[in-house]
Amino acid sequence: MTSQLILANGFGAAVASDSASTLGATRKKPRTYETAEKIHPLGDPHRLAALHNDAVHLLGMPVGVLIDEWKASLGSRLQSVEGYRDSFLTWLGDNLDNWSTSVDREWNSFESLDRRLWQMARSVEEEVESVAEALRHGTALTVVRETNEMLESREPNDSRLKDMADDILARWGAEGEEGIPSFRSRIEHWFGGLPRSAEIDQEIERFIRLTVEGGYEFPSDAFTEVTFVGYGQKEMFPSAASVRIFGAVGPHVARILLPPVLAEPNGSSYSLILPLAQRDVIDQVLTGLHTPMTRHAADMTVERLAGVHSDPEVSPQEPVPLGVPEGGVAESIRNELMVDLMKVSRDNFLDPALATVAGMPLGSLAEMAGALIAVQNLTLDIRGELPTVGGNIDVGTITLSDGFTWVNHKGRTLDPMEKL
Asked: Smallest Cα–Cα separation from 252: which of 173, 162, 178, 175?
């Protein structure tokens, strides 16, 4: 994991990142290295940096290496911040065959679908084991069907995959030339001992199509996020544009384009605060809320209230009263509680933080960014958790006039205004 932070105002942007890289986090003996490069400055005339977090590799190649190779291809043409992001994605697609093969990508994609089938089969198995024999078929059908309904309600991660789905599924409908088995043989493998019928099989194949079309843990269940931050060709204030990349199928790099984040007016200046990756403690400092814990506490309160409060029954023919969720009064209390907490957080914590950032000198922005990453790291130590955030805290600044400058890089502290 990683912890990163971007703070920006009219003076420029400060970026900070830890240097820890944990390999094999799901194994008994994971290894953490504390020298990873997660901030990649672009040289003159570009006034930008690229940050990456989450998965270290894309199809076997370190993401940092790919970013550096893309940087070398840029030349001197300036673009918008979003333009740099799009340029990187185009470069990846054009160069996929330079470090991976179409066969390897096909296998990786198929294996991600196979994992999804295994997960679905396991979910069905867990549910049918707890019911009587006469109910097993109906239970299995309900599990798959409800999952499909949930997937259909979601926006696809990558709309391009929907256009490619027919071709992908046609290739995998029978034994492939590269030895890739048909997805129907994998259905037999994973669902062989579970309740089956034409109706269930139809829902399973629907699940496969929805997975491919929506990019749900397909063509990879791992992703890397790359954020481009700084100044574009005609931009006077810094902004950030991010993309989540989750593998590739055929010549296409699967991606989720996140909305750009702009420095917004605040008082007499502008400000931007953007935490990335592991950020719960940073969010707590900036907003006064530990949102996961707050939501969990609210859910516990709802459950307790539901156990002692009997909501009036509403007949199926009558509409649910306006303002009262279908879950009843307890659910309404939870929703109202979270709305009120977010408002109090905004008024008393986040807005003052944004106002403070708006007027800070660039050197102070850099100090604050590094300090907040250090707090995230310290909290993991106090909790005794795996040190997925740690190592040296790299800090840099980006300005209109000087572009990127290191403030602290692998323990070497520099003058924020000193040009390397």
From this structure: 162
Is 231 in a helix, a strand, or coil?
strand
User: For the segment 208-223, what is each residue's pLDDT rounded down to a tens digit?
Assistant: 999 999 999 999 999 9
Dig out the tokens for 55 from the structure: 């998965």
Domain borders along the chain are 3-100+222-310+319-413, 102-214
pLDDT digits (tens, 9 = 90+) for 107-126: 999 999 999 999 999 999 99
Are 88 and 63 in contact by the 8 Å Cβ rule? The answer is no
Tell me the pLDDT tens digit for each residue of 386-416: 556 678 899 999 999 999 999 999 887 665 4
Q: Judging by DSSP bridges, how do beta strands 224-231 and 57-58 pair with one another?
A: unpaired
Tell me the H-state helices in 173-311.
183-191, 198-214, 280-287, 291-308
CB count within 10 Å of CB 264 equals 12
Distance (Å, whole) CA 289 – CA 333: 18
Distance CA 75, CA 55 (A): 28
Q: Which residue has the tokens 């939501």?
A: 295
Cβ(221)–Cβ(40) below 8 Å: no
Q: Distance between alpha carbon 141 and the CA centroid of its chain, in Å?
A: 31
Q: Is the distance from CB of 68 to CB of 61 less than 8 angstroms? A: no
Q: How far separated are the first and last CA of the chain, in Å rounded?
A: 29
Collapsing DSSP to helix, strand or coil, 132 comes out as: coil
Q: In 309-361, where does DSSP find H-type helix?
A: 329-345, 351-359
User: Nearest Cα to 294, choosing from 357, 344, 358?
Assistant: 344
For the domain covering 3-100+222-310+319-413, report its CATH number: 3.60.20.10
Residue in 361, 363, 383 with CA at minimum distance from that of residue 278:
383
Helices (H), 215-290: 280-287
In the chain, the amino acid numbered 130 is: S
> b vs e for 226-244, b when ≥16 Cβ sit within 10 Å of the residue's Cβ?
bbbbbbbeebebbbbbbbb
Burial of 309 (0-12, 13-18, 19+ CB in 10 A): exposed
CB of 306 closer than 8 Å to CB of 328 = yes
Backbone phi, psi, residue 288, to 5°: 80, 0
Locus of tokens 């957080």: 345
pTM, full prediction: 0.86
Enumerate residues 6+ apart whose C-beta is below 8 A from 257: 85, 243
| d(C-alpha 62, C-alpha 41), whole Å | 17
